């Protein structure tokens, strides 16, 4: 009997378990159907926040920028002007030498002997002249006493003049001998920096040619040469009628900067403009003089030159981080009264510290995005946050 009742008991438990599972499924289905009754609508994100500011007004000096290079004020090749052995080199290569300092000594004994020989010939010529002059005076007196012939007077007159010419020739030979002796010492013609020596002591120099011994440059001050285009030249002439072709020495201040420098820290003076425009390149060569007391600026350096075009003028200024660039040029993003973003092309003027002058494209009342440009899209709205006072 017990064996027969066991399956019935198991069937009743299974039935009860199935009924509980069906109830759970019914509840879940009811919840699902009740939740699907609400519509699934899209909510747009809020407009991005951007910071805007009006362009500020400031004084700006218009200028032009050029590229050029430095050149020595004077460049001289020291040459051997007389023949002989190079005996001494009296300088350290690359040093600053003073005007008149002896740099090279060429064999001198030969030229000292030639000077003594010329001086001896001068003494002999002077002696002959004194004798002929004395004889001329004596025979002139005898002629007045009818004690001498006219031919004797004429002969001593000739002798006096001829020996006087010999004295002048001998004096010239002495001067030439002194010059040649002086050429045996090669001196610095001015204060400057001397190059390495091109000939070593012991070599024969000046044999049939003027041998180059070294170079010397005067680089305090130093020249900066650069060119201006024809268009810029004509614009400057139009803006500044007082600057004419008669201005041989303009004496205008310019700034100079080099490759390892920011900006234009050196002050130079524009002191020369070429007399004609190069028809091939359409440029005019200019030159500025730059102080170089410490000799740190060398000839041949690349230089950036900035020249002022006019007196300072009031202009609109924007920070450089608010300006973008694309194929159309420089632009800014502005926000109108409806908080709508639009792209505005601008014309840039000179840079002043970390700001740019705006020559065209903006007014003082425009709201320019100065922070958050990456979140702003032209044609879309933004949430405007005015810039705080004192915020750049």
Looking at the structure, the CATH topology of the domain at 215-308 is: Elongation Factor Tu (Ef-tu), domain 3
Structural class determined from secondary elements? alpha+beta
- Which CATH architecture of the domain at 215-308 is right? Beta Barrel
Name the assembly state: single chain
What is the ordering of alpha helices and beta strands?
A: HEEEEEEHHEEEEHEEEEEEEEEEEE
Number of helices: 4
Please report the first level of CATH classification, the CATH class of the domain at 215-308.
Answer: Mainly Beta
Nearest-integer average pLDDT: 85
Strand content: 35-45%
The CATH homologous superfamily of the domain at 215-308: Efflux pump adaptor protein, beta barrel domain
Distance N to C terminus: 100 Å
